[in-house]
Amino acid sequence: MKPARTSPGRRTTIYDLAGLAGASPTAVSAVLNGTWKKRRISESTAARILRIADEQGYALNMQASGLRRERSHLIGMIVPKYDNRYFGSIAEGFEVMARARGLFPIITCTQRDPDLEIQAARAMISHQVDCLVATGATDPDRITELARAAGVRSLNLDLPGRLAPSVISDNRGGAKALTRRILAASEPARGAGEPLLFVGGRPGDHNTAERIGGFRDAHAEAGIAVDEELILAAGYAPEKSRRALEDLAARRPRLPAGLFVNSTISLEGVLQWSRASRHYGNHAPHIGCFDWDPLAAVLTENIVMLQQDVPAMLARLFDLVDSEETRPGVSEIPTRFAPV
Length: 340
Prior knowledge:
Elements: H1 14-21, H2 25-32, H3 43-55, E1 74-79, H4 85-100, E2 104-109, H5 114-126, E3 131-135, H6 140-149, E4 153-157, E5 165-169, H7 171-186, E6 197-199, H8 206-221, E7 231-232, H9 238-251, E8 258-261, H10 264-277, E9 286-289, H11 296-299, E10 303-307, H12 310-323, E11 329-333, E12 336-337
Parallel strand pairs: 1-2, 1-3, 3-4, 4-5, 5-11, 6-7, 6-8, 8-9, 9-10
Antiparallel strand pairs: 10-12
């Protein structure tokens, strides 16, 4: 049974949580600031306290507790992955720009796991970061709510939220431009009116939905219908793209000569499948990738890559940091084609 919320209009305290969880205020404090293992608090107790804290909309409030009298000069960032050039360059650039402002950056990778994102946000809040940046978070608004309750500013990067300022790429415009390029490059190999194949990403996240929109826009502009079966947004992981292509090829003897691939992570699965299946014979299909890695150009022929403008995204992000902006809004940064 879900615990009743405390009275409307009154901020939930550690003592309220202790009463609801059947634990001591000291135990609640240790769980919320991430030191519960050192205090030998059981995992089941910690999980119960965190669940009740979420239900009560509570985050550790350093300002209210009098522990945050001055700025810490710490700035935190949550990233979903380190294993592609895009997120790696974001993390590296963030560190450089933070230090140039006299801020100390703290960065952690959460593997696109919503629970790890919240755990990381709580830990950074407990360490008194002045600002928390959620990069590619699965639920950025939940992170904003936690930060706001603790008096900490938050910003979103790569994926937008409704409650805090967000900086993202122009996903729809970039996808439309990339689709035009692939259509033109693959025209000699495509049948009349044949569409491209879209591979990778998750239809429920903003970036993939916008890229699918741009993909459709470019096809409509060219007078080409897009078959729903050719939108393979089965996830970012290489194995998911590979399996989606295997399943589609089993149903359709001939796949489109041109592919729109949603990231270099998905591209890995596409290339694995293409080489193992020999579906396209001795020639690689025409590929456009909404992501960039210089190695990809030497791994396959007939590829064009779209680069997200990380320096411009970070410059806009730190404009928001410097101005202490808190009003929700989305800044879209144009993409650019990678040099051949």
